[in-house]
Amino acid sequence: MQAIAINKNVNVESVMGAFASKIDPAGFTAWIAPLQASLCENRLDLVAQNQFTADYITREYGNTLKNIAADFLLDLNISVRANNNIVQSANDNVVCEFVKESKPVIKNKNVFDKFICSDENMFAVAACKKIALSDSSFSQLFLYGPSGSGKSMLLDCICNATDKNIVRMSGGQFVADFARALRDRTIFSFKDICRNCDMFILDDVCALAGKRATTEEFLQLIMDLKSAGKNIVLTANCAPNALNGFDRRIQSLFASGLAVDVIAPNAYVRRLMLIRGGVDMVVADELAKQINGDGHLVNGIINKIKTYTELMGERVNMDIASRLLADVLNKSKTPLSMVKTMCDKMGVSFDEICGNSRARRLVRARQIMMAALKSATNLSLTEIGNICGGRDHATVVYALSQIEKQKITDLMLNAEIDDMVKICK
Question: Are residues 116 and 256 in the same domain?
Fold first, then answer.
């Protein structure tokens, strides 16, 4: 009877006052007070300004609000303001308009046929096709491999092969947009844009390394998307457990889905890329053997040959190609280029190798590089140390001795050093 008596005199102000008495002042001021409240028969409608705010209030305060509303014999409904063009932050007076990038109307389901796939990359391509069809049992998909291996091209294929709503960003763009949202006090609008999609794609998560606040926001985004059943695709230059600048918790999250390595183009793939780019078949056969496995480099060669043909009006034969591409052919390799190529192969950056970090994976990579340079070149130990970040003679001697000890029992190490030696020759 007491509840019925309360219901006869109920109004929005009395209900909001009851909310304020049961919820901590900071939480009420930040989240509940900005809501638009209205009564409709025996229902209290609370309207949030964006989906993130509605989800947060439901998760953190939903039970408390429902119990208080029930004391007034009211049902509770939390909804989002219907406005597709303007998204407003819940905790400020700033209105920020986001214009979503328009997607092509016509989709091509066969775009993956344009990706020249080696046998080593068939699994990666199959995984991308699966997630493009939204028929995957895994989330997220983590593609990793050296620069120029084709990760971004696979992302293009996914985007063009699906009709789902996709939000795609580069790592640098995510960092910049998050910082701008904090500065402009539109962080909740930014959160909504990232979450209101069927698939979220981030190209190069390494750009988030060392940025604590951005990484925490991205971690929460991934968890929210996974709990909502959304598809996620991430790329990086190394495997999740080898990422530098991320704590173990984030590395574990990245590895919780399907992590697939993308191998740099081999000689067969490089040859097909050159031929498709209009390079003479004989020239393509020879160049494919002499250039390293970097897709960006292959595209640069194609553009250079194509431009030369257009400007000079003559077909590029091998003699012209040798002169035109002297800076990238294997015969012009320098010790510095060898080290950078080995860095790409082992999934570490050149700056890390030259730095002072004593991380186990970096120490091992340096020692392998030193051993490969010693076997494949006539460089002195001092020269090898200078190339690998200015290490002294004693450091190189110690590294080589450690490698020799490990080679006795570690067959994988022997194979890895042989691969690095091939790169240097």
Answer: yes
Residue 116 predicted with pLDDT over 80: yes
Instruction: Tell me: do 74 and 16 sit in the same domain.
Output: yes
Return the DSSP state at 36. E
Q: Is residue 102 in some structural domain? A: no
Mean predicted lDDT score pLDDT of the chain: 83
Q: Which neighbouring-strand residues pair with 88?
A: 95
Residues whose CB is less than 8 angstroms from the CB of residue 210 and which lie 6 or more positions away in sequence, other chains included: 245
Q: What angle do CA 220, 82, 78 make, to 5 degrees?
A: 65
CB 399 within 8 A of CB 366: yes
70 half-sphere exposure, CB direction, 13 A CA radius: 6
Name the residue range of residue 387's domain: 335-424
**End residue of a domain, out of 289, 307, 330:** 330
Q: Are residues 184 and 295 in the same domain?
A: no
Count of structural domains, the chain: 4
Handedness of CA 106, 108, 114, 115 (dihedral sign): positive
273 shares a domain with 257? no
Q: Taking the model in full, what pTM does it have?
A: 0.60
As a whole-number percent, the residues of the chain with pLDDT over 70 amount to 89
* pLDDT tens for each residue of 384-410: 998 888 888 899 999 999 999 998 888
**C-alpha span between 287 and 385 (Å, rounded):** 32
Tell me how far CA of residue 180 lies from CA of 147, 174, 188, 216, 354, in angstroms.
28, 10, 12, 16, 33
Mean per-residue pLDDT, 50-66: 84
Instruction: Provide long-range contacts, Cβ within 8 A and 24+ apart, for 128-135.
Output: 128/154, 128/157, 128/158, 128/233, 129/161, 131/158, 131/199, 131/231, 131/233, 132/157, 132/158, 132/161, 132/162, 133/161, 133/162, 134/162, 134/164, 134/198, 134/199, 134/231
* pLDDT-based confidence at residue 98 (cuts at 50, 70, 90): very low
Is pLDDT at 232 greater than 50 in this prediction?
Answer: yes
pLDDT in tens, 272-301: 999 988 888 998 988 888 787 788 888 889
* Ramachandran area for residue 134 (φ above 0: left; ψ -120 to 50: alpha; else beta): left
DSSP, collapsed to helix, strand or coil, labels residue 260 as: strand
